[in-house]
Write a structure and sequence with these properties.
Helix content: 25-40%
Distance between the termini: 29 Å
Strand order of the largest sheet: 3-2-4-1-10-9-11-14
Number of strands: 24
Oligomer: single chain
Strand content: 15-25%
Radius of gyration: 25 Å
Structural class: alpha/beta
Length: 593
């Protein structure tokens, strides 16, 4: 995950200062290293780990010859964040340089084959196979354009790629599949980037390449070709956004942008399937699993407990990281302890990990490559949400859940569950089209002082997470409860007009949860239900209903039903005039106890 830019400038202007300026505009995406490549007599590369200003002060990134080039900020996914793994990457002859945003799923197979053919690799990244493949085809007589076309016929995964070659000067070739790429047309040159903020100062006329199209840029023109090598006439759109708006791609806040990126986050994390299978194969027999986590990750862990115990039959505990030391004496060599953390740096989790490593096998599920948990755990699953700027976790949460579902389905050899999980991105995209109904509900409920969320089974952790999102960004008191616990205390708090969110996917718990709905409704509660579009009884009994595809069963509901609850919290916060990206007293990465 990262940001890429490229440019070819007219009148022999030096490209490096412009590339540095453009790539600096993508800092908000999050990154751990920076690199620039330009072409003069050969390919010139400067790159290193660290913040742009730090690397620039050390390497003077703007002082590079050549009127065209490519640049990159990296968010590590494959390989630690260091100078060697930083982009751009070249083949061993340094004839081709590439920047890449995305994930190459089959890079290990490709790398192995290329090594057998004599290619020598320097980095641990998936990206490095791309320049080696391009050069392999150029050595066979292909030009840069056709070599890249051959390459994308071999690689699998998501990508936006920009490539240059010293043997074909004055040209940048780019392409994309499931990763963003735009092309800018300016007075002084032509540009490409992952996001428009990078190039708005230089070009506001924008072309949007489609999946599989190739972009050929020289200092005279931009040509776009389809997968059959036909030239495509592309519509040019003019962007009028301010730079700050553009960073958010037109969204008012990062949180709503990130909610809308969740289908992509799930798709990207599903590419970790083979890695997870390798971990499971290496683990051997496991008699017990413990999840250790905090906050939102704790709720993802509860879903993991239900999955592993119900479909895999493995006894599973969920322990708050801050409370873990009180349970450490129960661990043994047949226990797998799974640590879930967005940042991979949470102090409580790291202390718990050090304890667990003394007796048990450990696995980290994290979103930040090279973080402390990735270095200390025996095994690591890298979620592929990309940088998440909003404090309230949204796309990192569904990415954690996706990793957990893959782990559970693979360890239980449950093909049906795998099939269902692969449908989740489409379900999320479908419900995001119905956002107006949530906006209307937010106006109705913005003055509430208390909210209750109830659900049974897999819906219980959805209730917990929905309540947490509401608390985090609206400052409304919200509590999540197992629906069967209503008569053990919470029912005493239900009164006239108090909103109760009832989570009711189709499944074996539906009938009993409907009875709980009746209980709170009889005491005057306003019922805001999340359930199936086909649920006629729920439509009659609820005051407000967010309806979801009936094919979303209760087992995969945590991956889908959470999205309208995130949207509810977001729009209530906006209605109250609050900044959902920056809730008071909270920070994105909790690294202290």
């Amino acid at each position: 995950m990262c940001g890429i830019v490229g440019c070819i400038l007219k009148n022999n202007k030096n490209a490096a200062p412009v590339l540095l300026d453009c790539i600096s505009k993508l800092e908000y995406r999050g990154y751990d290293s920076i690199g620039i490549a330009t072409v003069s007599d050969g390919i010139n590369i400067k790159k290193d780990k660290g913040k742009i200003k730090e690397v620039d002060s050390k390497l003077d990134l703007a002082d590079m010859p050549g009127h065209y080039g490519i640049a990159h900020v990296r968010w590590a996914t494959h390989g630690d964040p260091n100078k060697i793994n930083a982009h751009p990457h070249t083949d061993e002859t340094e004839s081709v340089a590439v920047v890449h945003n995305g994930i190459i799923e089959n890079y290990l197979d490709i790398k192995s084959q290329l090594e057998e053919e004599g290619h020598v690799f320097k980095s641990d990244t998936d990206t490095e196979v791309i320049p080696h493949l391009i050069q392999k085809y150029m050595d066979k007589g292909f030009d840069l354009e056709d070599a890249l076309r051959e390459t994308i016929g071999i690689i699998h995964g998501a990508y936006a790629i920009a490539a240059i070659s010293k043997n074909e000067p004055g040209k940048i070739i780019a392409t994309r599949k499931d990763s963003p790429l735009i092309v800018g047309i300016g007075e002084d040159g032509y540009y490409l980037a992952s996001d428009s903020p990078a190039i708005l100062e230089y070009a506001r006329d924008i072309i949007y390449p489609e999946k599989g199209e190739l972009v050929i840029i020289d200092e005279n023109e931009v040509i776009v070709k389809d997968e059959f090598d036909n030239v495509v006439e592309k519509e040019i759109e003019t962007i009028d956004w301010t730079p700050e708006m553009a960073e958010k791609e037109g969204y008012d806040y990062f949180m709503i942008k990130e909610i809308n990126e969740q289908a992509t986050a799930v798709r990207n994390t599903l590419t970790e399937k083979s890695t997870i299978q390798e971990i499971i194969d290496d683990l051997g027999d496991i008699s017990r699993i413990c999840f250790v986590a905090c906050g939102t990750s704790f709720h993802a862990s509860i879903t993991g407990k239900y999955l592993l115990e119900s479909i895999a039959g493995i006894p599973t505990d969920v322990i708050l990281a801050s409370e873990f030391k009180y349970s450490a004496n129960t661990l043994n060599e047949d226990t797998l302890v799974i640590f879930i953390s967005q940042s991979g740096e949470t102090a409580d989790s790291l202390k718990a990990l050090d304890l667990a490593n003394k007796t048990s096998k450990t696995l980290g599920i994290v979103n930040v490559a090279g973080s402390a948990i990735t270095r200390r755990a025996d095994y690591v699953i890298q979620t592929q949400a990309g940088p998440e700027i909003g404090v309230a976790a949204t796309k990192t949460y569904v990415s954690q859940l996706t990793a957990i579902y893959l782990f559970a389905a693979l360890i239980a050899d449950d093909e049906k569950l795998l099939e269902d999980v692969y449908k989740v991105p489409d379900f999320i995209e479908e419900l995001l089209k119905e956002v107006d109904s949530i906006k209307a509900m937010s106006k109705k409920y913005k003055f509430a002082r208390d909210f209750f969320f109830i659900g049974r089974g897999y819906s219980y952790p959805i209730a917990l997470e929905g309540a947490l999102k509401l608390k985090e960004i609206t400052y409304i008191h919200g509590e999540g409860y197992a629906a069967g616990e209503l008569k053990h205390g919470p029912l005493a708090l239900i009164d006239e007009g108090i909103p109760v969110v009832v989570i009711l996917p189709p499944g074996e718990n539906h009938r009993k949860t409907m009875s709980n709905l009746e209980e709170v409704k009889a005491r005057g509660a306003d019922i805001l239900a999340v359930g199936s579009k086909e649920d006629e009884r729920l439509k009659l009994k609820s005051d407000d209903l967010f309806a979801i595809n009936d094919d979303v069963n209760e087992i995969i509901a945590p991956l889908v039903y959470i999205v309208p609850l995130q949207l509810l919290a977001y729009y209530v916060a906006v209605e109250k005039g609050l900044d959902p990206d920056k809730p008071k007293n909270l920070a994105k990465c909790v690294t202290v106890e």
